[in-house]
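Follow-up to my post from last week.
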Amino acid sequence: MRGLFITLEGGDGAGKSTQIKNIKSFFEKKGLVVVHTREPGGTPISEKLRDILLDSNNREMEAVTEMLIYAAARAQHVRELVMPQLEKGSIVICDRFLDSSIAYQTYGRKLGDMVEIVNGYATDGLTPDLTFWMDIDPDAGKERVSKMGDFDRLEMEERDFHYRVYDGYKKIAENNPERVKRIDATHSVEEISEEIVNYLEEICEKRGL
Ligand code: TMP
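User reply:
Got it. Predicted complex:
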């Protein structure tokens, strides 16, 4: 049986990492094999591409170059790790996936249709079974990130960029109500964990897990 592919999305500082631990422990308690990975990254080649993408010295990177490198990292990750694990029946939890490219490159960088076209090849049509969008206002997210240390290349972008990304996520959630669950990231960790677990129980029931 194919496993489950669960992704977490949201602006920077939305608290994804804490919830990934929560999701991981939910499935491990059921005795299932859980693989936690991330984009960009997750395989040695994709992690090298991540370094290029996030390096704050790479200020001259063109928007199209950026989009293609995210897609290249994804193409490798999907084929080397995600698909083989899903085929083995594992639960794959991924910190960011295609929705990030739609939010950041289509909306943030205003690249239009080319993002979806290129990523059709990168993902080979793979879509998450369930996506949690950790909804946080970009200004509040930035304040959280600033407490964690230095900004990476994307975090250094102007305020308008982050608001376009935010609008992108809103549209993605509106267009995919079955798959994308909006989580209010201003709620307490306990409240968020409970809400997420409810959705996980629902999908497990549907899939007989
Ligand atoms: P993070 O994994 O630490 O959140 O950093 C990844 C950054 O890259 C984040 O600012 C979002 C951005 N990103 C894109 O712009 N497009 C993508 O396709 C992905 C996966 C991430």
